[in-house]
Amino acid sequence: MKDFLLRAYFGSHVAFFKVLPSLSGIACYCILFLIYRLLTHHLNRLQKIIQEDNFAIHLNGYLADLTKTVKLVKDMNALLSPIIFVLMTFWITGIFYNLSKLIFGNAFPDDLSFASTICNILSYSVQFLILLILSSEIPVTVSKMKSLVLQVPEDQFYYHWHVFPNKTTVPTVFLLIPKFDNFTDDVTVTAFGILKLNRNVILVSVGTIVTYELLLIQMLER
Asked: Membrane spanning segments where (predicted)?
């Protein structure tokens, strides 16, 4: 009975620290990828609208649809935010812990433990990078929409405004650019609202890990 309880305990321990974070990470990847594909669809649609002669007339309907999508993405990011925070904390802690074990020469009783540590470092690092890459591409997609609008001459907006003064209200570039800036902030993925996930986080994380390991090595050499 005692052996059974010990096996159950260690089995649940392995499931919690190995299986659950990986499954949660995969679920986050799928949701973030769907968000990215959804915004990419709007980007492609905007490209087609701009190529049309009367593109400004279709912008109102496009912006209405994009606003609904951004609200949906913002709500989904709010749900993912605490999960992403926990996953990032777990992965970074795992990377620190396993890298620290590599520094100690007598930390591995056998080759299997050494191989397990290497696998953990690679696994945590890859999962962390995938999360950051997917998260950073989402606001970049909205920024590409802004760049497309900026490429359209302002006089074309005013041209459509004068041709159709009574039929519709056409947004100008001066109104569109702040709107896209707000959209970029709304779709940006955050970790518990504390940290915005973008490509700069990769450099900060790598720098922090390297600094920690160098300090640890210097302390051990004394």
From this structure: 20-39, 78-100, 112-134, 201-220
Take residue 1 and report the two structure tokens written for it. 């009975």
Take residue 115 and report the two structure tokens written for it: 């191989």
Name residues whose C-beta falls within 8 Å of residue 194's C-beta, 6 or more positions apart in sequence.
Answer: 85
pTM for this predicted structure = 0.77
DSSP class of residue 195 equals E
CA distances from 68 to 146, 221, 222 (A): 17, 58, 60
Residues 139-186: pLDDT tens digits? 889 888 888 877 776 655 554 444 444 455 445 555 677 778 888 888
Query: What residues have CB less than 8 Å from 73, skipping those under 6 apart?
Result: 35, 38, 39, 138, 186, 187
Dist CA 23 CA 140 (whole Å):
26
d(CA 73, CA 63): 15
